[in-house]
Amino acid sequence: MTSQYASSRGKSQTNGLAIAGLTCGIVGIFIFNIILGPLAIIFGAVGRRNAGSGGSGRGMATAAIVLGVIDVLLFVLLMALASSGGGFSWRIGG
User: Fold this and answer.
1) How far apart are CA 44 and CA 60, in angstroms?
2) Residue 40: closest CA among 55, 56, 57, 62
3) Pair 27, 35: CB distance under 8 Å
4) What is the Cα–Cα distance from 38 to 65, expressed in whole angstroms?
5) Which of 70, 63, 58, 6 is nearest to 33 (CA)?
6) In terms of C-beta distances under 8 Å and separation of at least 24 residues, what long-range contacts does 80-85 make, across chains too?
7) CB 44, CB 21: distance < 8 Å
8) Cα separation of 52 and 59, whole Å?
């Protein structure tokens, strides 16, 4: 009975790099997108390679890659908006 528990516990391991990439991709949407975007792409690519064809975490690794690309594109879009028309102006008060 103990061997069945140990074997089922070993199968449920998730790819740590896929989780790290997904976390970087999600957080990168809100802050530090130029740093966390490429990290999400790298972690996602390595996690996808480690997952193999049907491994655990392959979907999370793919999502990390997509979110990393979105982070980088978001950074480029924000920089393009900042450079045209005099940049951002945040006015506090009157």
Assistant:
1) 8
2) 62
3) no
4) 9
5) 70
6) none
7) yes
8) 11
Contact assessment for residue 13 and residue 53, using Cβ atoms and an 8 Å cutoff: no
Structure confidence by residue, pLDDT tens digits, 23-39: 999 999 999 999 999 99
Q: Where do runs of H (alpha helix) occur along 1-94?
A: 2-11, 16-30, 33-51, 58-83
Q: Do residues 48 and 73 touch, judged by C-beta distance below 8 A? A: no
CA separation, residue 6 to residues 11, 41, 78 (Å): 9, 33, 50
Q: Give this prediction's pTM.
A: 0.74
- Say which residues have a Cβ less than 8 Å from residue 60's Cβ, sequence separation at least 6: 14, 15, 18, 19, 21, 22, 47
Quote the CA–CA distance of 22 and 70 in Å, as a whole number: 12
Say how far apart CA 74 and CA 49 lie, in whole Å: 26
